[in-house]
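Lab channel / #folding
Pinned by the channel admin:
"Please post every new chain as: sequence first, then the structure tokens as a reply. Keep commentary short and put observations after the output so the thread stays searchable."

First post following the new format, from NK:
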Amino acid sequence: MNQNLQPKVRLNNGLLMPQIGLGVWKTPLETTRQMVCDALTNDYVLLDTAKQYGNESAVGQGMQDAFQSTGRTRASVFLTTKIYNGDQGDYDRVRKGFEGQLQALQTDYVDLLLMHWPVNDLYNQTWQAMERIYADGQAKAIGVCNFDVERMRDLLDHAQITPAINQIEFNPKIHQPAIVNFCQQHDIQMEAWSPLGNGTLLHEPIIEKIAQSHQKTPAQVELRWALQHDLIVIPKTTHPQRMRENADLFDFELSPAECMQIDTLDTEEHAIWYDKFKWSGNPNGIDNVIADPASFE
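Reply from TO:
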């Protein structure tokens, strides 16, 4: 058992969640199936997917492949998926969409169910539906993604249950301090999507120099930096060797001075496509188009 994949954080409902996992955004079906199987074979615990990614069925099949080859069981996996923007709204609409996701994933529950985006005029109603799913036991924890302070404050004003997680874009180029500080004050765990910034910082001189001093890769330094900012990380890679490297983060620590050097790289610029999804409730908008994984070859 890879001990580097065992550290966990306790969420505000008491559930323990792994600090390091595998994200599967923007990967085609067969690649997703193999990378999930490889990840579980290499002792990964946390998997993060979404209906928007168009590959939940491949995640489900990859888990089954790994269970057959390793003897692991569903209980050994911390599985996260997300409510699709096009399924947001009242309970019946959310429930119908979620049931289809469970079927695709070949499971009868998820460990963490997130709202993928705070769709204006729908997110409070969607959250109420998610609270019912949580009460039914089909999600062990519920949370959100991409919420800013304004929308998180509004959600908390209407919610019965405080989100366990807010998953946001977070890496050395974007820190989003306002929402990070707000969530930490309200006992909402932060989780980083795109913790490696789509690879844009792997050749950044500051990070390369720090990596050399620790005899680590730039990716390991970026991930360690995020962990030291108290975030959960879900880097994506299709390569088993990089999966192992991405988990090898607990035999070194960045100094405060090194963290401050990396902090200087912040530009607070979102990924170039971010605004195409942001806050939209338009049924004809890009937020309601499920990605075709085959287009990401």
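NK: Residues 17-197+230-236 form a domain with the TIM Barrel fold (CATH 3.20.20.100).
TO: also worth noting, The beta strands are 8-10, 16-18, 21-23, 46-48, 78-83, 112-115, 142-145, 165-169, 189-193, 232-233.
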